[in-house]
Write a structure and sequence with these properties.
Layout lengths: L2 H7 L4 H7 L1 E4 L1 H6 L5 H15 L3 E3 L1 H17 L2 H4 L10 H30 L10 H23 L2 H25 L2 H9 L1 E2 L5 H16 L19 H16 L3 E4 L8 E3 L12 E6 L1 H11 L3 E4 L1 H11 L6 H25 L2 H7 L11 E23 L2 E19 L1 E4 L6 E3 L3 E21 L5 E5 L4 E14 L1 H5 L9
Length: 495
């Protein structure tokens, strides 16, 4: 088969596929429904079931992985509620409110101290400048009235009552989420309406594993990227799912729409220019590997179309007589935006390494430094630990990243010793060395303007300059003074 024939496998008639193809969900796309509201997730499943009728198939191994991970995904949604009380003031929502209470307390103390200092400095008639006792007493009275109001706020129950109510709300939502484990509307719908395939016997699994060893050694998709992440039979989970899809499609002699949010290179073609980046290869989720298309065509005699959940929902909405409700479409768009932000996160944050380099030297310069020279400064993105997306309304959003940078910085500096009597040039000490090495936890904020196209895909434009803040310094600091070298006895002969 030549490349032109392979290229034709990517071309599918959308109307024909949605009227005739078998709909197959991967584990990743099924579990993603739990991040929608229950009403929207149920509407999505109901629309799928209505349009595809008896053509929805769930490979047995997908059902196995779904059952295995469903509870973990549901419980994962409780983590956001824990951050409300996170002790890290820069992260926790309620902690920021408590911080304001502490600021009120500090304001009262600072104000009272300032009044005392003012009275001591300007209340003595024997020295100038001074102010009349009448003015000082009036001023003290007004300031005392102000601090009394602040004290009333500090001592009020607004903080403690709010904290108690917030804890009750948090527990209610967590209970609501955990109850879904036992009373899972989505699981019930899937089991009642999807055709679930038969599993393989152990000898059949061993045959697939033997084939998988050969395929993976030659990087033949799908599944070879799982060799480092999974163990035992699960290493071949994607291949098992693929075999079950081929078997069912062959028995029905039908094409397949495969909904999967697995974007690794063992399912999708690598985007041109990304081949060199071994750890962060970006792929085109709308272009499955040609080997997959070819194998499906040879075995089934039909075509297969692979889509991410968000892309599938857009196409499905176009096929429906009764479209998705506005609330569900809003959620689909929001999830699409979040995916786009996550997809670009690594490259976006990595581009900020120079800004971290220019920031990480703040506060390192010694007080006695006269001349100060940067000799080494580097920051490399190590990981992105958290990404949050907040809707500000009117098409504006705030994106926050918590990223860890591996940083190193080093300076040479010189102390001022005076000036040469003849030349008047500055005389400095021998060079000393100071630096820091380790990790910096950095918060990055950006505000974006978003417009959604007809395909639900977001067009993102930054509205303001980035805000970058080092919120935790995990570096080791070191300093080597010229005096240390001067007094090393093994380097000098005193006799």
């Amino acid at each position: 088969m030549n490349w032109n024939e392979i290229s034709e496998l990517y071309e599918t008639d959308e109307d024909f596929m949605y009227e005739n193809a078998i709909l197959v969900f991967d584990t990743s796309s099924l579990l993603k429904l739990y991040f929608y509201s229950t009403d929207s997730a149920v509407e999505i499943l109901e629309k799928c079931n209505y349009h595809f009728k008896d053509r929805i198939f769930l490979p047995n191994h997908v059902k196995f992985e779904y059952d295995k991970n469903r509870e973990i995904i549901i419980k994962k949604q409780t983590l956001g509620y824990q951050n409300v009380f996170n002790k890290n003031e820069s992260i926790g929502f309620f902690a920021k409110i408590i911080y304001q209470k502490e600021m009120i307390k500090k304001t009262i103390t600072d104000t009272n101290n300032a009044i005392k200092n003012f009275e001591q400095q300007f209340g003595n008639r024997q020295t100038h400048p001074y102010f009349s006792s009448t003015f000082i007493e009036e001023f003290k009275t007004e300031v005392n009235n102000f601090t009394l109001k602040l004290t009333d706020i500090e001592n009020s129950k607004i903080f403690s009552d709010f904290e108690d109510k917030l804890k009750d709300e948090k527990e209610a939502r967590i209970t609501e989420i955990t109850n879904q484990i036992e009373q899972d509307t989505l699981k019930e719908f899937i089991e009642n309406n999807f055709t679930i395939g038969d599993g393989y016997s152990f000898p059949e699994l061993m045959d697939i594993i033997r084939e998988g060893e050969l395929r993976y050694s030659a990087s033949i998709p799908p599944g070879y990227m799982d060799t480092e992440e999974k163990q035992s039979i699960q290493v071949y989970g994607d291949l098992i799912i693929w075999k079950q899809i081929l078997k069912h499609a062959q028995s029905q002699s039908k094409p397949v729409i495969f909904v999967s949010d697995d974007t690794k290179e063992d399912w999708n073609e690598i985007i041109e220019g990304e081949e060199a980046n071994k750890k962060q290869k970006r792929t085109d989720s709308k272009r499955p590997r040609y080997e997959i298309l070819l194998e499906f065509k040879d075995i089934v005699g039909e075509k297969i179309k692979k889509l991410k959940l968000s892309d599938f929902l857009y196409e499905l909405n176009g096929q429906l007589e009764t479209k998705f409700g506005s609330s569900t479409i809003s959620e689909i768009k929001y999830k699409s935006l979040k995916e786009a932000i996550e997809d670009e996160a690594f490259n976006f944050v990595r581009a900020l390494e120079k800004e971290v380099e220019s920031t990480q030297g703040n506060g390192i310069k010694p007080e006695d430094a006269y001349e100060f020279y940067e000799i080494y400064n580097v920051a490399n993105l190590f990981s992105i630990d958290e990404i949050s997306l907040n809707d500000l309304g009117g098409g504006s959003y705030r994106v926050e990243y918590l990223a860890i940078f591996d940083c190193n910085i080093e300076y040479d500096y010189f102390e001022y010793w005076g000036r040469d009597d003849d030349t008047k040039e500055a005389v400095t000490s021998p060079g000393s060395n100071i630096g820091a090495s380790g990790e910096l936890l950095v918060k990055i904020k950006r505000e974006i303007r978003v417009e959604f196209g007809e395909d639900f895909y977001p067009d993102i434009e930054d509205e303001e300059e980035l805000y970058l803040e080092i919120i935790e310094d995990r570096r080791d600091f070191y300093e080597s003074s010229w005096e240390d070298a001067f007094y090393e006895e093994d380097r000098y002969d005193y006799y």
